[in-house]
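User: Predict the structure for this protein chain, please.
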Amino acid sequence: MKLRLMMMLAVGFALSTAAWADGDATRGKTLAYTCHGCHGIPNYKNVSPIYSVPKLGGQQAKYMIAALKEYADGDRVHPTMHAQAVSNSEQDRADIAAFFQGSNPVNSQVIGTPPTAVQVCVACHGNNGVGISSRYPTLAGQHADYIAQAIKDYKSGKRKNPTMSAQAAVVKDEDIPAITAFFSKQKTLCSTDEIRDNDGKCK
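Assistant: Here is the predicted structure, written as C-alpha cells:
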C-alpha cells in the first residue's frame, strides 16, 4: 500500500512538473503586461544604482525561469523584481519566459575581435554571447551597463549563484568595460517592446 502511494505521488509530481515545463507563449503575452512598465520602455533606467533595464526579447526561456525564481527567493536583490516574481506561479514564469524568448533563429556570427578577458565567459555564454545551454543567459546584444552591473553584483555577493560568483571573482574590474562592450555589440537579443510589438519576433 505504501509503495503504491509513493508511486502515485511520484506520477502526480511528474505530471504537475510537466504541466509547467513548457511555457505557453500566448498566455505569457497576457501575463507579461506588468513587465512592460519597465522593460517595455525604450532606454529606461534602473534608479539606484543607475543602469539600463535589461532587454528580454530573445532571451533563453529556462534561464528566465531560473532568474525569476532567484528574484522571488531573494538570491537576486531587487525590490520591484521580487514583488513581481513572488506573485507568479511556476506556470506563470514558464509562460512569461516562453513569450519573451520568441521564435527568432539564433545568430551565430561573431562581430568584432573578442578581448582576451572574454575567455572566462565563453565556456557558458558562447563565443558570441549566446548561452551554450538554455540554462545560461544570452548576452549578445544586451546593454553593456546592465552586464557590468550583473558582474559587479556577483562579485559583491548581491547576486547569489555559485558558478557565476566563482567566475566573476576572477574578472578584473578594469576588464569589465571591454567584456561588456564586446557582448553588447553582438546580435541576438532585442528590446522588450520589439518582441511585444512584432508578434514574438525581434525585428
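The chain has one domain: 24-197.
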